[in-house]
Design goal:
single chain, alpha+beta, about 25% helix, about 80 residues, 2 helices
Length: about 80
Amino acid sequence: MSEPSESPAVLVVGAGLAGLVAATELHASGVSVRVWEARDRVGGRCWSVPVGPDAVRLDLGAAWHWAEHERVKELADRLSVDRI
């Protein structure tokens, strides 16, 4: 069996933290990567929206992913994701 002449292309399904980290790691190792996300935004279950006159953020999912959580903080920093 012959070796492929170039890196394989990879499709990552989902732009939540896991998908974004997988795509980042693959890309860093020289693999051609595309990310497909069904929603019109990235973040997966990590999502908040502004509410009320002061635009306070309301967490709509993944409540344990607060900004001080060390593993999530590390991933957000690596991906240049803003924490609120």
